[in-house]
Design brief:
It is a single chain. It is built from seven helices and no strands. The radius of gyration is 18 Å and the shape is globular. It has one domain (3-139). The protein has helices at residues 3-21, 29-43, 46-50, 53-60, 78-99, 103-127, 138-164.
C-alpha cells in the first residue's frame, strides 16, 4: 500500500478535530469534494482508491474491525445513488444559504457534513463492509458518472470519425 493511502486517514481525523475547534478549517473540505470530480476525466475513480482520506480510513482502520457482510444491493443501485446525492447536496445547499456571509458559519457547514458522513461511513463500514460508503459516496459517484460520460463521448466520436473516413 502506498504511503499516501496509508496516511491519508490521519488528514481526515486531523481535519475533523481542527474543524470542531476552528470551523473555518472546514473550507478546506472543498478540495476533497472537488478532487474526485476534477480528476475523474483523467483518472476515473483513482482518487477514491488511492488518495481519498475517507477511503484510507476505510482501508487502514475499518478493514480491521469490519464484519465484512457485503454491501447491501440497494446502496449500489443508481436510483439510490441519485436520491442520496440530491438529498445530501440539498441539505448542504440549504445550510450554505443560511450560513452565507460568515466564514465561521460556512466552515461549520463543511465540518458538520464531514462529521455526519464520516459517522455514517463508520457505522456502515463496521456493520457491512469497510467500503460500503464508497458504493454511494456522492462525490465518488459524480466522478464515476463523469468518467463514464467521457468514455461514451470518446467511443461515439471514434465511431463518427470512422464513418466519415
Amino acid at each position: 500500500m502506498k504511503l499516501i493511502k496509508k496516511l491519508a486517514w490521519i488528514v481526515l481525523v486531523f481535519f475533523a478535530v481542527a474543524g470542531i475547534l476552528y470551523p473555518p478549517v472546514g473550507l478546506v473540505a472543498v478540495i476533497c469534494m472537488a478532487a474526485p470530480v476534477i480528476t475523474a476525466p483523467f483518472m476515473g475513480r483513482k482518487w477514491c482508491g488511492s488518495y481519498c482520506p475517507r477511503g484510507s480510513l476505510n482501508d487502514c482502520v475499518l478493514s480491521k474491525i469490519s464484519l465484512r457482510k457485503g454491501i447491501p444491493g440497494i446502496l449500489k443501485k443508481t436510483s439510490f445513488k441519485i436520491a442520496f446525492f440530491i438529498f445530501l447536496m440539498g441539505l448542504f445547499i440549504i445550510q450554505i444559504y443560511f450560513a452565507w456571509g460568515s466564514l465561521m458559519s460556512i466552515g461549520a457547514v463543511f465540518v458538520r457534513m464531514i462529521l455526519i458522513t464520516t459517522l455514517i461511513d463508520i457505522l456502515l463500514g463496521v456493520y457491512f463492509h469497510q467500503r460500503t460508503w464508497c458504493a454511494f459516496c456522492p462525490m465518488g459517484t459524480a466522478g464515476g458518472w463523469i468518467f463514464s460520460l467521457k468514455q461514451r463521448l470518446q467511443k461515439s466520436s471514434g465511431k463518427r470519425s470512422q464513418i466519415t473516413a
